[in-house]
């Protein structure tokens, strides 16, 4: 979803509002929500829900109570209640959908316990907010230098200023427990603010920082994914993927969240396939499983004494053989159930691009350098003789007859 300024410009180029996700419509922001109930009127005896969803830096969202009955809409900048002072955020959702979101995130729907929205942010509040946000990159660099100087095994991945500039939250990751009591004192004296340390996991760190995945698109955790489900290596086994940690791991160092997207489809398809440890009993011998193709519904089996000869059989015929074996009977051989694939003439690949053969480097061509040098010398001598004047003697060295080997 985007505003009208995100339409195409001249020549089909994207126009854009150049606001980097802070435009008034809030349509370009990360983890934004579409209010599909905005054009629907409530019943006459029902009061509108006073809860409001407010977004802060890097997709952090909280729910607040509109105690002042302000007319709020998506994209409004508001001053919200905080532990000390106030914070500045952007309204992302209002109305009845806030109740649904609170129920989805298992939040208490009691509005009395929610923090309040003070007012719509004034120009002074916005100036202070933008001023402290511009300092975050410099302070993050300085904070890392202080942590390295103290010898702490931690990584400060991101910092966030409160809207009024009275508090700074430092997000860090660490494998072990970190004693940062001295670190907090150094931060407070260096930055002159209240300091709060928050430890986040590797997945949360990747979601806050963002990036481009191996698929070429932005990370799911930083764009639309709101909950992190556990990913196991069995998900890769069910999908017939190689257990290569370099390919299966994301930028967070954990298994990719996208391994769970198609897992249910694979599990449903595998219900028709027999287990890998089931052996097929034939009169020719016992056949064992080698591999399968889930998309084509094919399996490969081979005899125990003929490991190099694989037989490609459809899954329905394999189930038929297993049913016959359960009755105590044997099939004659696997060759009777093999399905031969006939390749049509249209599917035969031709050299349509004009490429050379794959064996062009097997036998290198011999270069006749001697013959080429002799012919070049003869041509150069002939040209020099033509260009000489009539009274000028020809070059004796060039015209000297060559000795013949007897």
Characterization of the model:
The protein contains 12 helices and 12 strands. It has 406 residues and is of the alpha+beta class. The protein folds into 4 domains: 31-121, no CATH class; 131-200, GMP Synthetase, Chain A, domain 3 (2-Layer Sandwich); 207-268, no CATH class; 274-342, no CATH class. The strands form 3 sheets. A 5-stranded antiparallel β-sheet has the order 2-1-4-3-5. The radius of gyration is 37 Å and the shape is extended. Residues 19-27 have low confidence and may be disordered.
End-to-end distance: 91 Å
Structural class given helices, strands, pairing? alpha+beta
- Overall pLDDT confidence: 81
Work out the count of structural domains: 4
Task: List the total number of helices.
Answer: 12
Shape: extended
User: Which spans have pLDDT < 50 for at least 5 consecutive residues?
Assistant: 19-27
Q: Give the radius of gyration.
A: 37 Å
- Count all strands and give the number: 12
* Helix content, binned percent: 25-40%
Strand sequence of the main sheet, in spatial order? 2-1-4-3-5
Order of helices and strands: EEEEHEHHEEHEHHHHHEEEEHHH
Q: Percent of residues in beta strands?
A: 15-25%
Summarize the structure.
It is built from 12 helices and 12 strands.
Question: How is the secondary structure organized here?
Answer:
Layout: E1 51-55, E2 61-65, E3 77-81, E4 86-94, H1 96-104, E5 117-120, H2 123-134, H3 136-150, E6 155-161, E7 167-173, H4 181-191, E8 194-199, H5 202-209, H6 220-223, H7 233-238, H8 245-248, H9 263-270, E9 280-281, E10 286-293, E11 298-303, E12 311-314, H10 315-326, H11 369-387, H12 396-399
Parallel strand pairs: 7-8
Antiparallel strand pairs: 1-2, 1-4, 3-4, 3-5, 6-7, 9-10, 10-11, 11-12
Helix pairs in contact: 3-4
